[in-house]
Amino acid sequence: MTEVSETKLAGIGVRHEFTTASGERVSVLSHRTGRRELAVFSKDDPDACSTVLHLSPDDTRTLSELLGASPVGEAVSAVQRLEGVAIDWIRLRPGSAPAGTTIGAGRLRTRTGCSVVALVRAGETVPAPGPEAALAADDVVVAIGTPDGLRQLRLLLEA
Amino acid sequence: MIPLVAAASGDTALAFIEIGAVALVLSVLARLAGRLGITAIPLYLLAGLAIGEGGVAPLDVSADFIQLAGEIGVLLLLLTLGLEYGGDELRHGLRTGAGPGVIDAVANFTPGLVVGLVLGWAPAVALLLGGVCWVSSSGVVSKVLTDLDRLGNRETPAVLNLLVIEDLAMAVYLPVVGALIVGRGAADTTVTVAIALAAVSVILAVALRWGDHLSQLLAPASDEALLLAVFGLTLLVGGLAQEVQVSAAIGAFLVGLALSGSVQARAAAVVGPLRDLFAATFFLFFSFSVDPSDLVGVLVPAGLLAVLGILGKLLSGWVAARSAGAGTPGRLRAGTVLIARGEFSVVIAALGAATTDGAELGALAAAYVLITAIAGPLAAKLSDRLASRLVRTG
Q1: Which of A37, A48, B162, B323 is placed for a possible disulfide with A29 were both Cys, Cβ 3.0 to 4.6 Å?
Q2: Is the ipTM here above 0.85?
Q3: Which residues of A touch B264 (CB under 8 A)?
Q4: Domain extent for A147
Q5: Is the pLDDT of residue B1 over 50?
Q6: How far apart are CA B183 and CA B177, in angstroms?
Q7: Distance from CA of A39 to the nearest CA of B (A)
Q8: Domain harbouring A82, CATH code
Q9: Count of structural domains, chain A
């Protein structure tokens, strides 16, 4: 990961800075109030910021999700660093065989070697669902396993 | 039975009308200040001059109320100044900002002290004038830094650290001059100064070491209970400090320093609106008691001090930003943003109000704050243009 430096701003909050691979210096200022400021340093004056974004807590969440820092996204990048392990999102079409049953009923792990690590239902994430967790149409199954295993899992779930 | 809601007598009705009208005028001024990108303090001072003795629209009925509200305003103002920084920030500020802090103190305190002595004032009052000239307005500085989007800049932590150092220095300076002002004989003065310093060291030590415990004690309170607890504690400690000849304002300041962590942030949030109301009254009352004809007499020393005060802050900002590794434009930005004086200067001048030179000190401080609080934000806005010219010619 890029090296991040931290500076305390007395009475205001904390500032984190790093330099991007292409050489721009970026700083993220976290106010005590929860507001954030995202600033890019100016090319002409390396001590000043040329662009500053003022982000409310909501804006911050939106931006960080767009940048791929959602909990699932973080898990993905963690998994992707492990050799031979892959992750996949599989949507259950309405009318597919597993919809309306449970994870355990399909004996998914036994048959494919893949683990279901999360279910995403109507935008909400159900982390680490047990075998009794119900599967419904339009659920997104997040599973990790070998690339081969995931291919088999996809066949089973889309059957 | 005492009627709680008595039929308003003519006097009460008149007082309501006057106080209401004054509050409305202040609200317009606060909006105007926001539009101009400065704090409302200089405008409040001007309003006070207008309604005070010899002003354009003198008030008399509500003067008593305004005076008491103004005194509560000082306590709340200093409470929130103390609340601005936690123990961590104070310790960190001391470690990294002590060098520039000393230069800042010498460069900005000395002109005031010397001018006070040249004017033939008592040494204690000259010391007050030194303080008036010394301390930047942390309110104006953080507002200008935020408005001009400079919080991300390299020089900004150094600027903020300088404010922390000044805050800490005030914790020692205020009780000492407070004691010097009231002290009568040499022995008496020594005792009051000693008591003041002892009280301050105890509270500072408690704040830095055990502030967490006090904060934990207050933490479970609801916003309402917290507001009352902090308000009560501030007035109580302020009153006790006054009893031992340390100014009440200092007691309030130390209460602010003692609170830390999440309670610190919450207390600042709940006390904020109350502070705004009473502090506006304080600034109003301060210049309310300044005679506009005194103001004319101090214009020359005030102008001279303002020039020296601007140069002094340019120097201390330059040094602080250089130690943070900023280049010429950053150093100029740091210097200009620090020019504005405000709340502390007015509070310091108010400490000397009862002395023989108090009226002159008040007028001088009002003029000085007016000039620097308006010139500072303007200079800060222009500093980058100034820097590019400087770099090109230099």
Answers
A1: A37
A2: no
A3: none
A4: 71-157
A5: no
A6: 10
A7: 6
A8: 3.30.70.1450
A9: 2
Instruction: Report how far residue B128's alpha carbon sits from residue B299's, in angstroms, rounded to the nearest whole number.
Output: 18
Q: Indicate if A127 and A105 belong to the same structural domain.
A: yes
- Shared domain for A75 and A40, answered yes or no, is no
Separation of alpha carbons B251 and B228, rounded Å? 17
3-state DSSP call for residue A27? strand
Residue B58 CA to residue B119 CA, distance in Å, equals 30
By C-alpha distance, the chain B residue nearest A28 is B152
**CB-CB contact of B366 with B302 (8 Å):** no
Query: Do A13 and A51 have their domain in common?
Result: yes
Question: Of A47, A66, A85, which residue constitutes the final position of a domain?
Answer: A66
B222: closest CA of chain A, how far (Å): 18
Look up residue B301 and give its amino acid: P
Nearest to B85 among A11, A39, A41 (CB): A11
Specify the pTM: 0.76
- Domain boundary, last residue among A22, A51, A66: A66
User: Model confidence over A77-86: pLDDT tens digits?
Assistant: 566 566 677 7
Q: pLDDT (tens digit, 9 = 90+) per residue, B147-180?
A: 888 988 999 999 999 998 998 888 888 888 888 8
